[in-house]
Known about the structure:
alpha+beta; 9 strands; binds zinc ion
Amino acid sequence: LIVQWGVCDAGESDSLRALDSEAAVKAASLLRKALLGRCVATAPILRLEEGVRSLGFNVSRTRLRPETGGAQAWLIPSGRMSFDLPLDPTPISGWRKARHENRSEVERHRSRFLIAHELAHSVFYEQRDDLSHPVRTNPYTPKEEQFCDECARWILVSRERVEQLSVTPSSIRTIHQEFDVSVELAARAFAAVKDMSVLLLYLTDENEWRVQWDSSGDMKAGTSFHGDSRSWSERFGGRFELIPRRGQAVLIGGA
Length: 255
Ligand SMILES: [Zn+2]
């Protein structure tokens, strides 16, 4: 529907079908314009749900049970230029592991990501005059999921803003707070723009540090990371930062 929202023309919209990184960044920039207007397109989108509602998305929370293999969200054409967007912010691993005091924040971050991801799918729909609801402009392929994850990241986080930030781990915390996104999404945005390796760690309920995400792909998620935050501070200096409230830590520039 991106053409119908008036932020691009048909030629520009066709170029997004490449589904590569460049297309994801381009689509996100167009969608930010649709949500925020041209003048403030680098600002955080703090009221995403209201923003997408104005574009015709009816967001609702439903138990879809992603923790038992169900979907996390659906995008369902529901009327002229409109979609129903039921979502379930439950983590794939369930709520058991999440620190209770952070549950509402985790729920909010997951909901925001799922809304942005489904908004990205809507790029490949159009409203034809002779039909009562939007239809796909090209067939769905699994590659579209990767495109939508990347596009969602750049809808939520302004790339231009990340470019302005210094190459220090505290910039990841800044992105996380300023754009109201998870630490992992902030770490992914930072790694992509700064072309810098990032290791994201989390503290388990058993007080053990594990890998949550490694930008280099060397360490699998869930791998134990030996040592403690104090020893890493001494060893890695300014390349390491603890985010105590979230029980997470980031290390940039390789372990
Ligand atoms: Zn999807």
